[in-house]
Each structure stands twice: as C-alpha cells, then as structure tokens.
Specification:
238 residues; Rossmann fold; 7-stranded mixed sheet; alpha/beta
C-alpha cells in the first residue's frame, strides 16, 4: 500500500472521501509470511503475542518444522511468548520444554514485570487481530502497556482481497476460520492502527504458505496482481 499525503489525511481523518482511492505497490517478488518474520527476528529480542496456535495442530507443525514460534526462537537472540490460552501454554511447556512463555491478557494492567523490564526490538502479532472483538482497544492496550518496552510492532492479518476469496465468491461461498471476527483490507487495517495511535512505517502483501510447483497459474497471478496475496503485513511504531 502506498501511503501518500492524501491517504495519511484519510487515516488521520483530516480529509474524508466516500470513494477514496488506495493504491498498492507493484512489488513482483512473492514473500512468505514466516520467512519475513524469521528474517526480522534474526539476532533480535522478540515478544510474540498469540503464539500458541491451535493445540491439535501444534504437534504436527513442530514435527514438520512449521510452528512459527519455534522458528522465531531459533532465529532470535531471545524470544518471549504470551497468550491467553493457559491450557496450550501448559501443554507446550510440559511436552516441548519451551520456556519464556506467559499467560497474559494484554488488555489488562497485570503484565509481568520481567516482560516490561525487557527492551524488545519487535513485538510480533501474527494473524491474531482478526480474532479480536475490539481490535482498536486491543492495540491501544498494547500501546499503553509496552510503549516503554518495545520499538516496533509487526502485525499480520488475512487479506480480504485474497485470491482464494476471489475464486470462492464466484461459487457464492465464504470459507473462513470460524473464530474470525473480521476480514481486513490494507486500508482498514491501517485505519485501526492509526486509531490506536501508532505511526505506520510500511505495509506489504505476502503469502501465508509456500506455493507448490503445481500452482504455477496462481503464482503468475500473484506476481502481477499483489493485491490478491492472502496476507497483509504492517510494521508500526509507538
């Protein structure tokens, strides 16, 4: 997404349009979500919010090397994970002996001091925001709790314009994780970030999972039309 002067005015509500035109960058190289996060995490101190994933999937993902939190642990200097899923955290601690995991609700004021005393290079919030009933309140709470403990946040969310959604619309279908509350577009995700008081550094459109060799046509489409990529990545500052 291109943040020009007019777009920024829309985000800050100093200008209004009932038909605002938002332009996307024509970057042709497909980047994958996990690769981008792992690259950012290299030799950094990371706080990973919402790291647990769905318990039935964790074993399989760890065995295949596809569990994002483990990838971040391996790449980073140090990685802390927080989640509201107490059962999931106890399971991971017991079965996989992973430490620096905390049961924390980031919308509360009860944040462990050992987290607040750290200085994080990045807070990662990958594919969490679409599960939250009040995303502005969620992001505002993170701002208030971690503004002195972190430099930047990288937030990812499913893209409402994604290629699979486009195809399914011709079949009169919506296929969705039933715990999701929202679909986001690049602009609407930028809007809630701005409402929560953050400065936006950049936004990119990436793919969540690796494309197989058989998906030649899809890869061709995504190279030409990046707006069809399935994941939005936005980097923001306090």
């Amino acid at each position: 997404m291109i943040y020009n002067e007019l777009t920024n005015k829309y985000l800050q509500e100093s200008e209004f349009s009932n038909g605002g035109v938002i332009k996307f960058k024509k970057d042709k190289q497909i980047v994958y979500r996990d690769d981008l996060l792992v690259d950012l995490a290299k030799n950094k101190t990371i706080l990973h919010i919402g790291f647990v994933d769905h318990i039935p999937l964790i074993n399989e993902k760890i065995e295949r090397g596809n569990w994002l939190h483990q990838k971040i642990i391996d790449a980073s200097n140090k990685c802390y994970g927080i989640d509201i899923n107490r059962e999931g955290i106890e399971y991971i601690k017991t079965k996989f002996n992973i430490d620096n995991l905390y049961v924390v609700d980031v919308t509360s004021n009860d944040i462990p001091s050992e987290l607040l005393e750290n200085k994080f290079d990045y807070i990662f919030i990958p594919d969490v925001i679409e599960h939250i009933g009040n995303p502005v309140y969620f992001l505002t709470s993170i701002y208030e709790n971690f503004k002195d403990s972190a430099n930047k946040i990288v937030l990812t969310a499913p893209n409402a314009f994604g290629w699979n959604n486009f195809k399914n619309s011709f079949k009169s279908l919506e296929i969705i994780n039933t715990d999701h509350r929202f679909w986001f577009t690049p602009y609407t995700l930028s809007k809630i970030v701005a409402d929560a008081g953050y400065k936006i550094n950049r936004l990119n459109l990436v793919e969540h999972g690796k494309l197989s060799k058989r998906e030649i046509f899809k890869k061709y489409i995504l190279n030409i039309y990046p707006a069809f990529r399935d994941t939005i990545v936005i980097e923001i500052e306090f």
